[in-house]
Amino acid sequence: MIKSKPASLSENGHYIVAQYEPLRLYVHPKDADQPHYCTAELDSVQYNGTKYVQYQPVRRFLRDCLHTAEEIIYDGPLDLGGDYTHVKGVPFGRSDAENIRIANARRGQENADGRAHPDYSEAYVIVSTAAGSTYPYHAAAVVAIDGDDTVTLEVFARGTDARQNDRSAAGRFEMYSSTGPTSFHATWSNNVNFTGTNPVTMVLGRYH
User: At 106, which helix (H) or strand (E)?
Assistant: First the structure.
């Protein structure tokens, strides 16, 4: 029974993200859409009398959060180094300085910071606007939506960790609300890696 362990239930009860097993997503067998970039497993958990089907990512990832988000958006493996995503038509990820410029231009705008709410084939990205940050940004692609809640599949790592032949990173499922203390922006701006860096959260879309 999952209710005795810490877990997040999406707005209409379609998805469960369990803190004790973040590498799996639990999906309502009738009411929920199949999560993007995921495949069902035989295991399940029971919640309020319903057996939620267990899902996992279709494959492992390179150790790069942005590249992971881009592969989910494009629904398949990609080579490192391409211009795959954009913010309002401007390519993202070319350099830290350019990312900071884009972030400062989007600060306080619609669909940014605490109001950022990506759809399918989109992703959150939070950018540190302090030059030289160890973790200059973190990206997370949406794989499921239930009301005002989004479920993401993400890898947390520095871009320099990525190697084209190393697909050993297991994506973690996380759940965020559209606003408030459990939004993506609130969660990550209070993370130790972004505290004090005046970060900006934006929505990444498919570039091509």
Answer: helix 96-106
Angle at the Cα of 47 from the Cα atoms of 16 and 40, rounded to 5 degrees: 55
Q: Return the sign of the alpha-carbon dihedral for residues 19, 192, 110, 75.
A: negative
Report residue 115: phi and psi, to 5°: -100, 5
Q: What is the pLDDT of residues 125-155, one digit of tens each?
A: 999 999 999 899 999 999 999 999 999 999 9
- Full-model pTM: 0.93
Rounded CA-CA distance 68/152 in Å is 11
Residue written as tokens 């459990």? 182
